[in-house]
Amino acid sequence: MTRFFSILLLALAALTVNAAEPDITFEELTFDFGTIAEDGGPVKHEFKFTNNGDAPLMIVNATASCGCTRPDFPKKPVGAGKKGILKVTYLPKGRPGEFNKTVTVKTNSKKHKKVTLRIKGFVTPES
Asked: Choosing a second label site near 110 at 20 to 30 A (CA), which of 11, 17, 50, 104?
């Protein structure tokens, strides 16, 4: 009986070591909008990523550092080896001057459970 449990434990350990894991890699972590006009309307950027793991990747949540920044992320799993896009919109109206905002992305990846993306630039005031 002891031998049976030893074999069972070894089998479970092997499964744990070889367990499939998702892993996210972004093409870039920072995007500079440069100079934008306050009255020019919202600006957008697409942060492209790849699931380099061997299991489906889920973006659990994406949270902006302020209400002027809005992330939009895939709600469905991204398959192993597949690419995805996380869109970030910045609203410059009423915010002249330099900006530097972050979006915190939470995933089901053990290696990259939390990733911080950054947008920055300068808003010229309305005339």
From this structure: 11
Task: Report d(CA 126, CA 92) in Å as an integer.
Answer: 10
pTM metric for this prediction:
0.84
In this prediction, what percent of the chain has a pLDDT beyond 90? 81
8 A C-beta contact, residue 24 and residue 56: no
Question: Residue 19: its pLDDT value, please?
Answer: 72
